């Protein structure tokens, strides 16, 4: 089966060069975190991914990154021991990938390839089409290089793509203490933010097209029904009454279908609010029932107490079941979940929604999907 390009991508710079470079957005965010936390000191990471030929074009897909430790020897950047240690971490977190390059962040330094950088790349990444990324977080600059023809040649641009990346999420949780990222801190990644907004706009546009088609078909059907029934019942008053009832039924059905479509495109937030309102209404109804029971004779009060106890046990069992499904640092999104509901499950209130958004690089809390793993603050 022929490989296909990722569907959800964002272009950075001019991507006319070969090979095409695709960086998963969690990796891109992690590299920015490393550089930002390095402050005035240099920092680095090894890049994990794969080389493929997609639709006849050479491509590099970078879906993992591992923190890099520097050599104690001033004459080299990476020691053999540091490289072998990174290889072990790669086997633990990214079994399907290979080490295809590295990233170096040097705040305030010149954005040029010096002898030490070139010798390091030739020693550990001498294969064709390996990648080197040079960053300067002080000046907010980055340059991509590809090793070919025995030279590190600058690449004009690359793509940032989004796919499920549980392996990178898992590594980010492990490495956040090493790089000094606290649970409530996330580097603001404008590219990732714009990308998620683009995905949301595409989704809404598709839903709008579906709704428009449904409305058009329903309107045509209604016109046909009116014409047929109008001809057959023109001189019959009794049949005209029947036609009127039929048209009313059809109109209500069309309106109902339109409302259902609108509710679907409104997203998970509206569904969560409706569920919350329903729970509140049920809670108020229960409180009213308990109040009425307290005004009845003593035997009925006992029955109400037993019912309340049973209800509390059910809630406790449900809470325990939910907590068992969560790990210490990751929450897996379930059907009907929103960030507000997740915050209430984990922390008991909805005040942690912004922290969860920042931790996972989410600009819009509605854009989550079933099975997604969220890093918890």
From TrEMBL:
Gene3D superfamilies: LysM domain. The chain crosses the membrane at residues 214-234. Pfam families: LysM (PF01476). The keyword Transmembrane applies. Residues 273-289 have a biased composition (Polar residues). Residues 329-376 form the LysM domain. Residues 258-323 are annotated as: Disordered. Keywords: Membrane, Transmembrane, Transmembrane helix. PROSITE patterns: LYSM (PS51782). This is LysM domain/BON superfamily protein.
